[in-house]
Write a structure and sequence with these properties.
By secondary structure, the protein is an alpha/beta fold. It is 41% helix and 17% strand. Strands 2-3-4-9-10-13 form a six-stranded mixed beta sheet, with helices on one face. Strands 1, 6, 7, 11 and 12 form a five-stranded antiparallel beta sheet that branches. A two-stranded antiparallel sheet has the order 5-8.
Length: 382
């Protein structure tokens, strides 16, 4: 990205001014929309790549459409969908907008809005579950890798340790897992990884905003995790050695890591059920777990939101919304992108008419125990 391109986008945003008939909500929304392009190009690790790939006209048109819609709103809450659609013109995942604390206080006055917020929070906080399906098979359901789920998973594995060690077939269901934190799935790795694995590094974009956001992230989202603070501090120290606008790498591009404290009795067969709803840290879990000879991925391709990661919040000018944007970029790029097509399963399981999620689990259980996916003798086999 050269300076003239940045100036071009700055001029572009200036073209969309307020009209005399604009409501306070539309003025705030337009202000936030105008702010986004230059902030992304300065701080988001994927923005310049996307501009290069899609061209200036693409983003010109997307911003014009968003501001045209914003001029018609009467309540500030209507701005969220408009801004989110605009952000998707950059990339489909790992770039989003949400209500700020100021907005949440405003929404509390609306019973319906509060009810919707409660449902969303309940979904995000869904806990890990273990269900023993037979003497040979167990189902481990991981609906979220939210930081709050790390300790419950550790406790669940501890409480069921003896029976888990005696169960040869594991089904790990991450079909609805939208991600969270990599640290939330690490308690599982001693059960899954029996050999050395490859870890690909990442690079960080150095800007004042990104460095500050990195310093604050653990206190905000995982204040009781000492490992989080140690990790974040190590990233900040590396970023502080760079100059504004520079990508800087921490550690090696490739490392070969052996899992410590391996479980002595690990499952002999692990089937991880995946689908389009698996994204972010869920996809990183798959890239790690599939390196074991005992693990197979089954289902449909995942969402594709991992190449630009380590999201950090940034308050927009209106004060009503926070932007979540990427501050790191995987060194897998450009050779092994995930965002384009997601993580591809080892065994593709198309959605079968009449099947629900439970029946798909049963099919995989049958396959692990007998080598057959069919549920009954009336189904066709080849």
């Amino acid at each position: 990205m050269n300076l003239s391109s940045l100036k071009w986008l700055g001029i572009l945003t200036a073209l969309f001014s307020f009209s005399a008939q604009s409501t306070p909500a539309s003025k705030d929304c337009i202000q936030d929309l105008n702010y986004l392009p230059n902030f992304l190009l300065s701080n988001d690790t994927g923005a310049k790549d996307h501009l290069k790939q899609k061209g200036q006209k693409h983003f010109n048109d997307a911003l014009h459409q968003a501001i045209t819609e914003a001029k018609l709103i009467k309540e500030i809450g209507e701005c969220k969908k408009i801004a989110q659609r605009y952000l998707k013109s950059w990339r489909s995942g790992h770039l989003s907008i949400d209500a700020s604390e100021q907005m949440k206080q405003k929404l509390k006055k609306s019973p319906q809005a509060a009810k919707t917020t409660e449902k969303t929070e309940a979904k995000l906080s869904s806990l890990p579950q273990i269900e023993f399906l037979s003497e040979k098979s167990v189902l481990v359901t991981l609906s979220s890798f939210a930081p709050a789920n790390r300790l419950p998973l550790i406790q669940l594995l501890k409480d069921n340790h003896q029976q888990l060690a005696a169960t040869p077939n594991w089904i790990i269901d991450v079909r609805r897992n939208g991600g969270g934190s990599d640290s939330s799935y690490t308690p599982l790795l001693p059960w899954l990884i029996g050999s050395q694995r490859v870890e690909v590094g990442m690079e960080w974009l150095v800007t004042p905003e990104n460095t500050a956001a990195q310093q604050q992230i653990c206190q905000r989202y995982d204040p009781d995790n000492k490992e989080c603070f140690e990790w974040a501090d190590s990233i900040v120290k590396v970023m502080q050695t760079g100059v504004n606008g520079q990508f800087i790498q921490k550690g090696e591009t490739i490392t070969f890591k052996s899992e410590e404290n391996l479980e002595p009795k690990r499952p002999s067969r692990v089937a991880i059920l995946i689908s389009r709803s698996c994204g972010s840290s869920c996809e990183q879990f798959l890239l790690t777990a599939r390196q074991s000879f005992n693990v197979k991925l089954l289902g449909r391709r995942t969402y594709g939101s991992l190449d630009y990661s380590n999201l950090r919040p940034h308050l927009l000018p209106s004060g009503y919304f926070e932007l979540s944007y990427a501050t790191s970029k995987s060194l897998r790029l450009p050779h092994l992108p995930v965002d384009i097509a997601g993580v591809i399963p080892d065994i593709y399981l198309p959605t079968i008419e009449g099947d629900d999620e439970g029946q798909e689990v049963t099919r995989v259980k049958n396959w692990l125990e007998s080598g057959r996916f069919i549920l009954d003798t009336t189904e066709k086999t080849e």
